[in-house]
Amino acid sequence: MDTTSRQEEQNHATVSKMNNDRLASLYQKIAEPPRLLSNAAAKAFCCIFRVPQSLLEINGKSYQPHIVSIGPFHHGEPHLRMIEEHKWRYLGSLLSRTEPKGLTLQHYLKSIEPMEARARECYSETIHLSSDEFVEMMVLDGCFLIELFRKNGRVVRFERDDPLVNMFWVIPFMVRDFLRLENQIPYFILQHLYDLITTSEDRQESVKSLSLLALDFFNNHMMRPPEAIAKLHNLTGKHLLDLVRSSVIPADLSEPVSKHDTPTHLIHCVSKLRRAGIKLNNPRKAFESFLVIKFKRGVIEMPQITIDDFMSSFLLNCVAYEQCHKSCSKHITTYATFLDYIVNTYKDVEYLADRNIIENCFGNDEEVANFINNLGKDVVFDPEKCYLSKLFNDVHVYYGNSWHVQWASFKYTYFDTPWSFISAFAALILLILTLLQTLYSVLSYYHP
Fold it and tell me: The whole model's pTM is what?
């Protein structure tokens, strides 16, 4: 065989090997399951998600933990190291009470190991931690949360020199971080650890439920009456964000199962509603969830909501959670969209504040209006299946009453403020004087 033929065969073999390697690489990619959005994300038990990029671009900082990481998504980030060190201190404090009674660190780790696979499936992406690292993180983060809740509930005492308590800025930041969608661990892990701890203590008196301790902790920033929290002692959730979200949704506030025969009409902004004679009032009842909105005889009744750093972060993360989780209700999304519909400008916020519907602890009225508009931005919303669909249609029917709208618009234009009333009254006097002058001129012409 000559040199040219041998060279051609070698080239052909090289090309063939390259093609085979390329095909093998492509088949390997086909066989590999998705990692950034795993197949588990579509299942009902998956409940901890990365926030969608569209929402991150609008309110990015509201979804990222500022001082403490819980769970794997932000585990080990340098700016969260400070509280990470205190987690170990809290774990040591817990072990100092449970180890003498036979519950050691080894027992905590061994009890969580059978739950590892189930816990991993709660996350929407593949967790790149070894089995030991993952279990250790679940125990450390879970015990830290439980110890903090119990100390806040005075089940055990805070240490006198505990900086997490003595530095007043720390707890408010942690409260917000504990309710960020990306910063969660499964609630069944917390419940299991809590049951271990309380069983080891063998207390004679009644033990508060984990949900009650957790809700008491967050209620320091939500300011709900203690009796309203006490009713929720059996409440549970997928994680802490879901627990607190569920606590603000009344049991009788259900969403329609099927769509209505007629399309649902969306609601107008505050200024247009007022021109149509529709008022917005605070019902001023004993505690009622801010989600309970009613429409009666031309009046929309809305319980007061406080817009501050905590509530803004909570609402944003609830909306992100409802956008990602296919099985949970969309109550917070509906409320956020409703606010976005009725608020267009700072004047709408100003009116709602005057009616004691919004308590503005966030900034000026324009900042609140911008927040509300961003809250409902790029959010998927089905008005046909929302719990406010009937209210939307009732308001639309009232708004469409032509004679009523014309009379209300007249009153709004000419009698809404003292100055508009004075201007209208002056214009009326001027019109009457002009008519009288014309009448006298006509009479003087015929009867000089």
Answer: 0.85
